[in-house]
Specification:
With 173 residues, this protein is mainly alpha-helical. It folds into two domains: 70 residues; 72 residues, Arc Repressor Mutant, subunit A. Helix content is 72%, strand content 0%. The protein contains eight helices and no strands.
Length: 173
C-alpha cells in the first residue's frame, strides 16, 4: 500500500523531534532556541528528496541540527559549556541508594564538563544518542579514526577524573 508523500516526514518528526531537541539544547542551553533549530531542521527536510535523504536520515538530521545550532552560537560569538544533566536518563529510584545515585550522577557530570568540547560532543553522540562512528563522522565532519581516539581519550579522562575526585574525598586513615 502506497503512503502519502508526507508520511515519511511525519514519521521522522515523530521519531526524532525529542532527541534532536535534547541534542540542540545541550549545544544552545536554551529550550526555545533548541526547538527553533529542530523546527528549521525539519523545514529543511521538507525541501529534500525522500530517496536521497531517507537512507541516511538520522545522521542527516543530526548534522543539519548541529549546523543550525552552531550557526546560533557563532551568531552570538560565544561558546557555552555542554551540560549533560538533562541528557542523562533518570534511573528508577532505588529505595536503598538514592543519595548515592545522585552523588554519582553529579560526580559524572562534573567529570564530563572537564572534557574538551570535542570529547564531550563525541561521547554524548556515541553513548547518549547511540550513534555509530560513521554517523558521528557524518554529523561532525571528523574522520572515524579521530572519533575513536576522542571517545577513547574522553572515557580515559572521565575515569581518571572520577578516580582523582574519589581519592581527594577519601578520609585519611
Amino acid at each position: 500500500m502506497e503512503t502519502s508523500a508526507d508520511d515519511w516526514i511525519r514519521q521522522a518528526v515523530s521519531e526524532y523531534s525529542k532527541p534532536l531537541t535534547q541534542y540542540a539544547y545541550q549545544l544552545l542551553k536554551d529550550w526555545d532556541r533548541a526547538r527553533d533549530v529542530v523546527q528549521d531542521s525539519f523545514l529543511k527536510l521538507c525541501d529534500q528528496r525522500k530517496e536521497v535523504v531517507l537512507p541516511k536520515l538520522k545522521p542527516w538530521l543530526y548534522t543539519v541540527c548541529r549546523n543550525r545550532a552552531l550557526d546560533y552560537i557563532r551568531k552570538e560569538s560565544r561558546m557555552t559549556e555542554i551540560d549533560f544533566m538533562d541528557e542523562l536518563p533518570s534511573p528508577e529510584p532505588s529505595p536503598i541508594h538514592p543519595l548515592q545515585q545522585q552523588e554519582e550522577k553529579i560526580e559524572l557530570l562534573q567529570a564530563l564538563s572537564q572534557l574538551t568540547i570535542q570529547q564531550q560532543e563525541v561521547v554524548r553522540l556515541k553513548f547518549l544518542s547511540d550513534l555509530s562512528y560513521k554517523e558521528i563522522s557524518e554529523i561532525t565532519g571528523m574522520n572515524q579514526n579521530l572519533i575513536g581516539v576522542q571517545i577513547h581519550n574522553g572515557l580515559r579522562n572521565l575515569r581518571n577524573r572520577i578516580l582523582e575526585q574519589r581519592q581527594s574525598e577519601a578520609p585519611l586513615s
